[in-house]
Amino acid sequence: MITDVTGVKSCIVYDIQDILREDVEFIASHPMAGREVYGVENADDSIFRGANFIVVPTKKNTADAIHWIGGLGKILGFARISVLTPEEHDEMIGYLSQLTHCIAVALMTCSDNEHLVDYTGDSFRDLTRIANINDLMWSELFMLNRESLLKYMDIFLTEFAALRDLISEGRVDELRAKMRLSTERRAYFNKKKQ
What we know:
Blueprint lengths: L12 H7 L8 E5 L19 E5 L6 H13 L4 E4 L2 H24 L12 H7 L6 H10 L1 H23 L3 H22 L1
Parallel strand pairs: 2-3
Antiparallel strand pairs: 1-2
Helix pairs in contact: 3-6
């Protein structure tokens, strides 16, 4: 049994499975437990504890392999083990991970004022933590999952423009309704964390 920890799946999983010997089974997985720093010197196994782990099987995978990789996730301390197809995985990653990295990069490139650090609070630091980005790795991930990422970037641009219009036009009631919807949807994540 072999696995991987890559951030995209459908562009690699099938090709890997096609080239392996009959006695080797590749079962893809994705630990959803990264940090904004990289390299062996920054390794920290505590990031796995309580995090999500995604098993990404194809029709070529056996029940034993799916069970084995889920068990590995449990041994490593992941709290939740999910199973997605490679295509479902890439769609979800385009939104939850790649879009958020794009937003963080855009926020950091909006202003070149070096003194902003003297005035910032936690909200800006929280939103931009992942802008500390490995450009070689993330640019490759964006290109490999371009279709899903562009889809969610377009949706985000539409939502952001709508929010801008509400503010520009002074439509406070609709602005507050959008904020309430945001709070309602964010509460789901708060419950999952517990």
